[in-house]
UniProtKB/TrEMBL annotation:
<keyword id="KW-0805">Transcription regulation</keyword>
<dbReference type="InterPro" id="IPR036390">
    <property type="entry name" value="WH_DNA-bd_sf"/>
</dbReference>
<dbReference type="InterPro" id="IPR036388">
    <property type="entry name" value="WH-like_DNA-bd_sf"/>
</dbReference>
<feature type="domain" description="HTH lysR-type">
    <location>
        <begin position="1"/>
        <end position="61"/>
    </location>
</feature>
<keyword id="KW-0804">Transcription</keyword>
<protein>
    <submittedName>
        <fullName>LysR family transcriptional regulator</fullName>
    </submittedName>
</protein>
<dbReference type="InterPro" id="IPR058163">
    <property type="entry name" value="LysR-type_TF_proteobact-type"/>
</dbReference>
<dbReference type="Pfam" id="PF00126">
    <property type="entry name" value="HTH_1"/>
</dbReference>
<keyword id="KW-0238">DNA-binding</keyword>
<dbReference type="Pfam" id="PF03466">
    <property type="entry name" value="LysR_substrate"/>
</dbReference>
<comment type="similarity">
    <text>Belongs to the LysR transcriptional regulatory family.</text>
</comment>
<dbReference type="InterPro" id="IPR005119">
    <property type="entry name" value="LysR_subst-bd"/>
</dbReference>
<dbReference type="GO" id="GO:0003700">
    <property type="term" value="F:DNA-binding transcription factor activity"/>
</dbReference>
<dbReference type="GO" id="GO:0003677">
    <property type="term" value="F:DNA binding"/>
</dbReference>
<dbReference type="InterPro" id="IPR000847">
    <property type="entry name" value="LysR_HTH_N"/>
</dbReference>
Length: 297
């Protein structure tokens, strides 16, 4: 089938939908003699009559009805194929992403790697750090933030951010496993500053008020996590996503397994305001959401 025959099918569809040649000519921006000539050529090629013509009306013959059923499917498939081809053209170029270093280190490597294998012509440029970049001024396409969600179409929740209580098995073997949260006032407690005011269920205290003994301090939560996992003495309050792998490996152990603290924050995906995201950015967003959709407390 050459390109002219595809055009003939489109003109045939226009005549069918409009009910006469004149309207079909206007719809397709084609002259009336041209559209009449193209339909006649199509009929000759098919060796059949598609329309019964009178001076005032036209209607499909039985052969025309059967042919229209086929051409509708063909043209629909062609439109889908064209749309997919155009999308593939746009799945090229660069995506700039910023995210907090701890979250990026724990969660993103496998996701970024798999996405890169699926879409090798999309270049992911990742900038990780605890500072909050201005997405517009710093030319980022997406920003991942751990924050209190805001009601806007520029902010989407990716996953929750619950806090759990942990320690290393070595440390628990040395001190014994605490049975009540109040017992922790006698131990070194480790947490990042943004968790200091998180309330502890069943008490009137926050994490920072729980104990006078604060252990190692750091602005990097993953550093605290790794330090405790290596056997440092202390009780750690930390986001579950940061410790999940270490819990599975046995390097960390939860204390009070039923205790989950609400950080009042979520892991959110932010878009810069202004123009709508490109198709490659939307494709990465969809991929990221699908990978994190099954994450549960």
């Amino acid at each position: 089938m050459n390109i002219e025959s595809i055009t003939d099918l489109e003109l045939f569809e226009a005549v069918c939908s409009e009910g006469n040649f004149a309207k079909a000519a206007r719809k397709t921006n084609t002259s009336l003699p041209t559209i009449s000539k193209r339909i006649s050529r199509l009929e000759r090629a098919l060796k059949t009559t598609l329309f019964e013509r009178t001076t005032r009306t036209i209607r499909l013959t039985e052969a025309g009805i059967r042919f229209r059923l086929r051409t509708d499917k063909i043209l629909n498939e062609l439109r889908i194929a064209e749309k997919e081809a155009n999308i593939e053209k746009e799945l090229k170029g660069k995506i700039r992403i910023t995210a907090p270093a701890p979250f990026a280190t724990r969660i993103l490597p496998s996701i970024v790697s798999e996405f890169g294998n699926l879409y090798p012509e999309i270049q992911l440029e990742t900038v990780f750090g605890n500072e909050k970049f201005n997405l517009i001024e710093d030319s980022f396409d997406l920003g991942i933030r751990i924050m209190k969600p805001i009601r806007t179409n520029r902010c989407k929740i990716l996953m929750p951010n619950p806090i759990v209580v942990l320690a290393s098995p070595q440390y628990l073997e040395k001190i014994g496993i605490p049975h009540h949260i109040q017992e922790l006032e006698n131990y070194n407690v480790l947490y990042v500053d943004e968790h200091a005011n998180v309330k502890i269920p069943g008490t009137k205290r926050t994490i920072s008020e729980l104990s006078k003994h604060r252990g190692i301090r750091s602005n990097n939560g993953s550093f605290l996590t790794e330090t405790i996992a290596e056997g440092a003495e202390g009780i750690l309050f930390r986001s579950l996503w940061d410790v999940e792998n270490l819990l599975r490996s046995g390097k960390l152990k939860r204390i009070f397994p039923n205790l989950i603290l609400d950080s009042n924050t979520s892991v959110c995906l932010l878009f810069p305001s202004g123009e709508n995201p490109s198709k490659r950015v939307l494709r990465f967003q969809e991929f990221l959401e699908s990978k994190l959709a099954g994450w549960k407390i």
